[in-house]
Write a structure and sequence with these properties.
heterodimer; A: Helix Hairpins; 9 helices; elongated; B: mainly alpha; 3 helices; about 0% strand; flat
Chain lengths: ~180, ~80
């Protein structure tokens, strides 16, 4: 039992819950009679799929995908290099003029150093996040359309229960 | 990602989903669905997807809950199941 929890349940717990939520949503869409309940189920289904995609980008002990600029980069942007790193602020103000005559080799070396410090294993993969950002916005737009159609159905039939709507359609329909 | 935090939020999410689908009052269902949205927003902040968490808090929990409540006020509040 302990082995089951440690080996199967814990590393993939997000995926287990994703499957459960997706099945709850599917059950609601199929089995619920009320149209608003069906839409809640549809939204749950959608968030389950987003949960799956975001879980793909998760890493152990990873932090958020925002890069913090290193002090060297700050100084390069503001003053153009070495002077800031040494803490010599008076020299730093004069530095940009020197820099242009300096040549490029030292500059590029410094940049390499600044970027070496990033370890990709410590940052969550941002690609699934960006894809799912679009999916959330589109999902809300479709939900709005679906709720508007629900209100139209209520105006037409006086109910949002699926079986009653079908009864009215079958009873009063012209081409039955 | 912290497993215990992850575990607790996911369990709460499943519970919130089931309650939102089984409660008879549609206004309560909409509110519990809003709670579900905030829980999943918390989960995404915890999983390192802060941009998705912001969007979910504003759009998923905020706007969709408002849309549901508006629809419930324009239709019937009672549900048969």
């Amino acid at each position: 039992m302990e082995q089951l929890v440690e080996q199967i349940l814990e590393p993939h717990f997000n995926f287990w819950i994703y499957v459960i939520l997706m099945m709850i949503g599917l059950w609601a869409v199929i089995a619920k009679n009320n149209l608003i309940k069906k839409l809640i189920g549809l939204s749950i289904f959608q968030t389950a799929i987003i949960l799956f995609y975001v879980s793909l980008g998760v890493k152990e002990d990873a932090t958020i995908p925002i890069k913090k600029p290193t002090p060297i980069e700050y100084s390069e942007k503001a003053y153009g290099g070495e002077a800031e790193a040494k803490g010599d602020y008076a020299a730093a103000d004069k530095a940009p003029a020197d820099k242009k005559t300096d040549g490029k080799t030292g500059d590029s070396k410094k940049k390499k150093k600044a970027y070496e410090k990033i370890n990709p294993d410590k940052i969550a993969n941002p690609l699934p996040h960006v894809l799912m950002l679009t999916a959330i916005v589109v999902g809300v737009a479709t939900l709005g359309v679906a709720l508007a159609i629900t209100q139209m159905i209520f105006k037409e039939f006086g109910t949002v229960e699926e079986d009653e709507v079908l009864k009215v359609i079958k009873g009063g329909g012209q081409d039955d | 990602m912290i497993f215990t935090f992850d575990f607790v939020i996911l369990i709460f999410m499943v519970v919130a989903a089931i309650i939102a689908l089984n409660v008879k009052d549609l206004l309560s269902a909409s509110m519990i669905f809003g709670i579900y949205g905030f829980l999943i927003c918390l989960l995404w902040a915890e999983m390192g997807a802060v941009d998705v968490a912001f969007t979910e808090a504003a759009v998923g929990a905020g706007v969709s809950a408002v849309l549901f409540i508006a629809t419930v006020f324009n239709t019937k509040r009672k549900s048969s199941d």
